Amino acid sequence: MQRSVKIRGLGLAMFGVVGAFAVQSGLAADKPSKAEMEVDYRQSLYTVIGGNFGPLGAMAGGKVPFDAAEARLRAERVAFLAPMLKEAFPADSNGVAHTAAKPEIWTDTAGFNQALQLLIDRSAALAAATNGGDAAKIKAAIGETGKACKGCHDKYRVKE
Ligand code: ASC
Question: Are 67 and 59 in contact (CB under 8 A)?
Fold first, then answer.
C-alpha cells in the first residue's frame, strides 16, 4: 500500500518533469514566435502580389496574349495589396531566420519607404490604366510597376 503510493508519486513527478520539458522545448518550438509570424505574413503578401503580377509580366512580355479583363483583375489585386506592405516590416522582424529582407530596410527607412511608395504609386497607375483598356498604355504601366519591384529587390532583398 505504502509502496504503491510511493511509486505513483514518482510516476507523477516524472510526468511533471517530462511535461515541463516538452512545454519548454518541443511545444514551444512548434509555435512560431511573433517575429516569425510577422515574416510569414510579409512573405504571404509578396507571394500573392507576385502570383498576380506574374500573368501581367507575361502579357507585357508577349509570353501570353494580352487580355484586358485579366489585366484589370490582376492589376486591381496588386494595387490593393501593395499598400499593405507598409505594415509588413515591423522592427522586430529584422533578422528573423528565414527572411531575405536586408537590415537596410530598418536603417535606411527613408530610402526603403520611397522605394515601397514607388510600387504603391505605380501599381495604382497600372490599375487605373487597365480601366482605360489601351493595351500599349497598360503594357507600359506593367513595365513601370515591374521596375519598382526590381528596384526595391536590388537594394533591399538578399540575392538568392
Ligand atoms: C514578378 C516577380 C517579381 C517582379 C520582378 C519585376 O513577377 O515575382 O519579383 O515580377 O521580377 O522585375
Answer: yes
